Amino acid sequence: MRRFGCLKWRVLCLALLLAAVACAQIVPASAKIDAKTVAATPRQSITAVETLCNTRLYALGSPNDPVDMLGLTRGLYLNNYGAVFSSEISLIVTPTVNPFRPTITKELHDQVHQKKVARLPALRATMVEMMKQAAQNLSQIPDNQQIVLAVRLRYMSWEDRTGLPGQILMSATRKDALAGVVQTTDEP
Fold first, then answer.
1. Least packed by Cβ within 10 Å: which of 48, 53, 85, 154?
2. pLDDT digits (tens, 9 = 90+) for 73-88
3. Does residue 99 belong to any structural domain of this protein?
4. What residues have CB less than 8 Å from 74, skipping those under 6 apart?
5. What share of the chain is helix, strand, coil (3-state, %, to 5)?
6. What is the pTM for the complete model shown?
7. Amino acid 27: pLDDT
8. Is 22 helix (H, G, I), strand (E, B) or coil?
9. How far apart, in whole angstroms, are the C-alpha atoms of residue 185 and residue 188?
C-alpha cells in the first residue's frame, strides 16, 4: 500500500513538471534585458535618488510649518528610456475640519492659499536641483536617456487652487539635467 502511495506522488510530480514545461513561454529577443542594462542601473542608485528627493522635499518646510509628505518618493528605471521618480506632497500641513475646528474660516482659507503659493517657487527650484543631483547619482545611464521627476500636489476640497498646479513634471536627458536645463510642465 505504501509503495502505491509513493508511486502516486511520483506520477503527480512528473505531471506537474511536464505541465510547467508545457506552459513556459519563450521571451522574445526584444523583451530580453541584457546583463549590461541590469548592471548599468543598480537599485542602490535609484534608492539613493529616492532618499535624496524625500530629504529635499521635506526640507522645503520648517519645523513650525512642515511640508506634508504623503508617502515616500518612488523611482524606477525603464530600459531604453531612463529613470522616473514620483512624489506626492502638500506644500503645508493643511488644516482640516474636525471636532475642534468645525469650519474653515475665511482668514484660514486665505492663509493656506497664500502659504502654498509662496512655497511654489522654492519647490520648482528644489526640483531643478533634484534633477541635477539625480543625473549625478545615475551616472550609469546614458547621457541621452531621460530623467523624469513628477511631484503631485494634494489639496483639500475647500481650498482655492487659483495659481496652484495639481502636478509639476520635470524632464530632461541626463546630459541636460546635469547642466540644469530642464523642461517643466504644470498640470492642473
1. 154
2. 999 999 999 999 999 9
3. yes
4. 50, 85, 86, 87
5. 45, 20, 35
6. 0.76
7. 46
8. helix
9. 10
Q: What is the pLDDT of residue 43?
A: 86
Residue 2 lies in a domain: no
In this structure, is residue 48 part of a structural domain?
yes
Q: How far apart are CA 137 and CA 52, in angstroms?
A: 10
Amino acid letter, 13: C
Residue keyed to cell 551616472: 139
Count of domains observed in the chain: 1
Q: What is the domain range of residue 69?
A: 32-187
Helix (H) and strand (E) counts in the chain: 5, 6
| Residue 27 located in a structural domain | no
Residues 74 and 46: their CA atoms lie apart, in Å, by 9
Q: What is the distance of C-alpha 87 from the center of its chain?
A: 5
Q: How many CA atoms does the CB half-sphere of 90 hold within 13 Å?
A: 16
Helix (H) or strand (E) holding 172: strand 167-173
DSSP 52: H
Distance between CA atoms of 129 and 133, rounded to whole angstroms? 6
What backbone phi and psi angles, to 5 degrees, belong to 171?
-145, 150
